[in-house]
Amino acid sequence: MTAGEDRSFDWRRGGAAAVGLFATLVLLGMVVLVAFTNSARDKALDAERHAYDVTLLTRTMDASIARAEAALGRYALDEQRKTGSRYYGQWRLAEQQLRQLEKSVSANSDQSLRVTELRRLFDQRGQQFSNVARYVVSKQKNYGINYYYSISLPEAGQKDDVGTKLRAKLSEIATAERDALSAKIKETQFFSAEADRLTDYLSWLGVIVGLFAIFMGVVAVQALRQNAASRREAESEAERAQQLEAAVRDRTQELWQANQALKLEAEERQAAEAQLRQVQKMEAVGQLTGGIAHDFNNMLAVVVGGIDLARRRLNGPRREVMTHLTNAMEGATRAAALTRRLLSFARSEPLLPERLDSAKLVGGMSELLDRTLGERITVRTELANDGWPVFVDPHQLENAILNLAVNARDAMDGTGTLTIRSRNLKMTANQVGDIRAGEYLCIDVVDTGCGMTPEVKERAFEPFFTTKEVGKGTGLGLSQIFGFAHQSGGEVGIESVVGQGTTVSIYLPRTEAAASNVRTHPAMQAKSDEELMVPGARILLVEDDPRVRTATVGALEDLGYEPIACASGSEALALFDSMEFDLVISDVIMPEMTGPEMVREIKSRRHDIAVLFVTGYVGEGEGDDLIGYDLLRKPFTVSTLAAAVATALARNPSESRPIGGAAAAG
């Protein structure tokens, strides 16, 4: 081989090596690009699964919130506990889904910020729903329904609607996931397009290598073999990609089935929890009933024993007979007081508000608090001398303060300091709960007990919720105080620190009513029987119970009146048309025609007739008809009856409002 041929061979060998090296580099590039493309595709599939999970969570959470809102609306309308339990279960399910959503987006800082904002809106919405439930529980149906519509159907243009913001935030989270997925898909498509373009270049390279194979056969054949191997590998990768897509579809189906099973399990758990709550409520009612029965049996034992002993000793010493009769009367009085408290708790007794000086009322409770709480509790009072007057039922306010004091004693395990203070405050709208802007007298009951955790504080006003041991509480006290404060136009607030104590504040609106223009209960007037009597007055007594009717007639005759009794409203109307009367005394709840219905007819015939209602229970819807009239609660003594009759007879007829339109308007 000559030097020229040797150089030509070296050139061909070097050229073949260069072409082979170039083809090898291109092939390696294609392999790397295919591997990179597969990796990008895997990431896109992972992103697609993640976006699907997040989108599914946002949709299911939105649906759970909608179902909770719908159940709450039904609960506000029908006031059924079953409906309330359905609302509570749907809302808890939405909270579980929110926690899953927080876990799913924890790796994405932007999405985490959005979910944090979603959590804030969710808590605000939950507070609004809880307020509606509390209004319904406190028998403020109309207020609860109006509040529900105000949060569920906001006015056009309202910017602070929490429900709209909550749904918008859910949509924003789902949209962000879809946008991220779209960007990932575009990136994958870009690399796939680049791979296809390089494949085209590789085909041209094959043509060039084929032409160049005329003088570099061995190198060209090797290049063709490598090209064929690359094609087979690409086909294998395509088959693997198809298998991967099928696996993704199977996994997605498995996830859907798992999600359905989780929903079914959640529904079963909700049903079990609802049943458990119902059992707990029935246990609480049983405990309350047992305690009431125990107290009544003790009181009846005193009454029956005293009367029986007095009857056996009628021929004995007068002092001994009077002692037994006095004991029986005290037992009956205690039973009547307990009955009034039970009616007050059931909100079946109409409020009798009057202008009150809080300092005098709380100061007068000192002996009662000391006797109730025991010697180990130190009671302190810090009452404002210039405390604003309020217009509330004194008995209800006293009962609320006593209830809070007993709760404080239990929180302090019977040892500690209880402080009752009053102060004047100017409140802005919604500063505490749903309070309206204005001037309020705040009564604080402060203890040094164990305090409340945030979870307990959040549920403190829920009916039947209690942290006390079995037999020591039914969870109804704070709910009753909440209802009393709202009925009086005020609000209740709680501040508590675990290990330091709790402060419960009752906010009552300041009143401008003059003391002389406010009606007081006849039983609270301090007059002698001689001063109260108006002898000779003719009284129409309407009472369906013959024993009560006989006893009342006897008492009125002893007081010097001329009573004429009947058993029904129709008989009363006939008597009223046949003769003149100075006063009508009527029971409230009677068959065929109620007392307010009868008085409405009497007022249409003679508007200036004096009226005195006597009742032991006021049915639902009857309380408003009693506004503006004197009311005497059963049982009553002769002295109390004398005070009530004299007050009704002495009242200026213009002060009594007719039942019906005027009363409803008030």
Automatic annotation (TrEMBL):
Organism superkingdom: Bacteria
GO molecular function, one term: phosphorelay sensor kinase activity
Regions crossing the membrane: 15-36, 201-224
EC number in record: 2.7.13.3
Main EC class the enzyme belongs to: transferase
Catalytic activity: ATP + protein L-histidine = ADP + protein N-phospho-L-histidine
Cross-referenced InterPro entries: CheY-like_superfamily, HATPase_C_sf, HATPase_dom, His_kinase_dom, HisK_dim/P_dom, HisK_dim/P_sf, Sig_transdc_His_kin-like_C, Sig_transdc_resp-reg_receiver
Domain Response regulatory as annotated: residue spans: 538-649
Keywords associated with the record: Coiled coil, Membrane, Phosphoprotein, Transmembrane, Transmembrane helix
Signal sequence region: none
Coiled coil: 224-282
Modified residues (4-aspartylphosphate): D587
Histidine kinase domain ranges (all copies): 291-512
PANTHER family noted in UniProt: HISTIDINE KINASE, SENSOR HISTIDINE KINASE
Name of the molecule in the record: histidine kinase
Organism, as annotated: Sphingomonas edaphi
